[in-house]
Design a protein that fits this description.
The protein is an all-alpha fold. The protein contains four helices and no strands. About 65% of the residues lie in helices and about 0% in strands. The chain starts with about 25 loop residues before the first helix and ends with a helix.
Length: about 140
């Protein structure tokens, strides 16, 4: 009357070998690289709108850290030519500050001193720059 079930039940536990697993350290490396790459993109935008030597240095340091975390893969760099409407520098500095804060949290949780120091320096730089731009 009933046909026997020929396939595994969808309610059965998955075989641990069915999908790839990453360690906590690998997940944190991925998160940190993503936050630093996003910070690099915002830094490149700021460099295009208001060139400064400290932004150039920060961009190179960020690119180096992202490359290290991604196993030597060079991050994609933003090539901002012109904006349709000029974004507010203060908003960009605030976004960069928030991204640096996220990177700092992840770097601290994975005990990456170099990335944590870089993120903290970028937070300080963007907080000061946002304050100065906001005062103008």
């Amino acid at each position: 009357m009933y046909e026997p079930i020929r396939t595994k039940s969808v309610h059965a536990m998955a075989d641990p070998g069915d999908f790839p697993h990453r360690s906590r350290e690998e997940e944190l490396d991925t998160q940190l690289a993503a936050h630093l790459a996003a910070l690099l993109a915002v830094t490149d935008e700021l460099r295009a709108l208001a060139p400064a030597a400290d932004l150039d240095d920060a961009a190179e340091q960020l690119a180096s850290e992202v490359s290290r975390l991604r196993g030597g893969l060079v991050p994609v760099r933003s090539a901002v030519v012109t904006a349709i409407h000029e974004p507010h520098l203060n908003a960009l500095h605030q976004r960069a500050h928030a991204l640096a804060g996220r990177a700092l949290v992840v770097a601290a949780s994975r005990a990456d001193t170099a990335a944590a120091i870089l993120a903290a320096r970028r937070m300080d730089a963007h907080a000061g720059a946002a304050h100065l731009v906001g005062a103008l």
